[in-house]
Inverse folding.
């Protein structure tokens, strides 16, 4: 999938990547390392040299809430650290604008039935990316 195609289908979290090795990319805008599987590379039908970006849909982000730290649950894989966030009420969901340490923004989405008061007081400083796409 290209960056343009990802944007057309609603993937608004896109970062340039730098390969660290065959199984790890650095998302430059988010200053976060992602673990890449052989299967993900095969699904792109592109050479590693042609993969220039990573894309994450807002609904593919798990927001760490409460006392448990996401990094402990997910073995510190595919974690983005945030410094601040803002919640916006939409018709069917909560849009969460997460500001990263380098002032970049990443967008997450939560189901509308999630209680806003609980979230606004208990969001931790981590996002877990449960699914991402390699883009060319």
């Amino acid at each position: 999938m290209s960056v343009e195609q990802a944007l057309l289908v609603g993937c608004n979290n896109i970062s340039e990547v730098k390969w660290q090795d065959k199984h790890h990319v650095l998302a430059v805008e988010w200053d976060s390392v992602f673990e890449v599987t052989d299967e993900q590379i095969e699904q792109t039908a592109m050479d590693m040299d042609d993969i220039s970006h990573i894309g994450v849909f807002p609904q593919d982000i798990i927001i760490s809430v409460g006392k448990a730290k996401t990094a402990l649950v997910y073995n510190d894989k595919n974690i983005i650290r945030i410094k601040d966030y803002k919640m916006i009420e939409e018709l069917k969901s909560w849009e969460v604008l997460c500001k990263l340490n380098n002032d970049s923004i990443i967008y997450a989405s939560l189901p509308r039935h999630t209680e806003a008061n609980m979230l606004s007081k208990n969001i931790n400083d981590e996002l877990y990316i449960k699914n991402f796409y390699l883009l060319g």
Observations:
- The mean pLDDT is 85.
- The beta strands are 13-21, 24-27, 32-35, 53-56, 61-65, 79-89, 93-100, 105-111, 123-129, 133-135.
- The two ends are 6 Å apart (CA to CA).
